[in-house]
Amino acid sequence: MPAKPKVEDEYSRLYKMIVTGKIMPNERIVEMDYAQMFNCNRANIRRALARLEQDGLVVIEPFKGARVRLVTPEEAVETYEVRGALETLLVSQAAKLATEADKAILREILNKLYEARDNGDPMRVGTIGRQIREELWRISSHKTALKFLTQINSQLIRSSYRSVMMPGRADAIAQQLTEVVDHVSDGDAEKASEAMRQYHASAREALVAALQVKDYVF
């Protein structure tokens, strides 16, 4: 008997709507409206909103309800910088700990990234790029940094969707993450860290360029 398709829960559906811009920054999320939309009860929406607040994507105000959190351009740039510092630390650790199985997984994901790049799909390049970086987080086994990065990444997904669309960014992601994976596979922590620093310097430049786009909203 074929397995039933997995149904997204209320948290996942709201998360996706926020990070893809279907619900805009500062827009109110009315529990009753989304309970009707998702055909569920308000308690489910309330629990989902509480999780989204922990992710830094939603603000819940007494007597006013929930709204999508607005991230200022300055905060986005600063958060990119913090993420870069943490990931540089983690990739150094990953280079020291990566097993042959870990390296094979990284190569497999990297091949998917090449395919997305060759198909001219920058959005998917960005998504797969995050998968590579999150795999490096896992390999590093640094639980404290991982906790902070998980929250930071949620806050930056919306801006990442826009910055990856900047000219040349998808190609840069493919090239720079290839260098990171190569050095991790070689067990060279110093070169892996330097490659990750270059990746994040480029990511910051793309974000700053995206900030110049008219009507850019976080």
Task: Give me a quick take on this structure.
This protein is mostly helical. The chain contains nine helices and three strands; from the N terminus they run H-E-H-H-E-E-H-H-H-H-H-H. The longest helix is centred in the middle third of the chain and has 25 residues, at 73-97.
Can you tell me about this structure?
With 218 residues, this protein is mainly alpha-helical. Strands 1-3-2 form a three-stranded antiparallel sheet. Strand 2 and strand 3 form a beta hairpin. The chain folds into two domains: 10-68, Orthogonal Bundle (Arc Repressor Mutant, subunit A), CATH 1.10.10; 73-211, Four Helix Bundle (Hemerythrin (Met), subunit A). The protein contains nine helices and three strands. It is globular. Helix 4 packs across helix 6 and helix 6 (122-140) runs parallel beside helix 8 (169-186). It is 72% helix and 5% strand. The longest helix is centred in the middle third of the chain and has 25 residues, at 73-97.
Provide the structure class.
mainly alpha
- The value of Rg in angstroms is 19 Å
Q: CATH architecture of the largest domain, please?
A: Up-down Bundle
Q: Outline the low-pLDDT stretches.
A: 1-7
Q: List the domain count as a whole number.
A: 2
Question: What would you give as the CATH superfamily of the largest domain?
Answer: GntR ligand-binding domain-like
Fraction in helix = over 70%
Q: CATH topology of the largest domain, what is it called?
A: Four Helix Bundle (Hemerythrin (Met), subunit A)
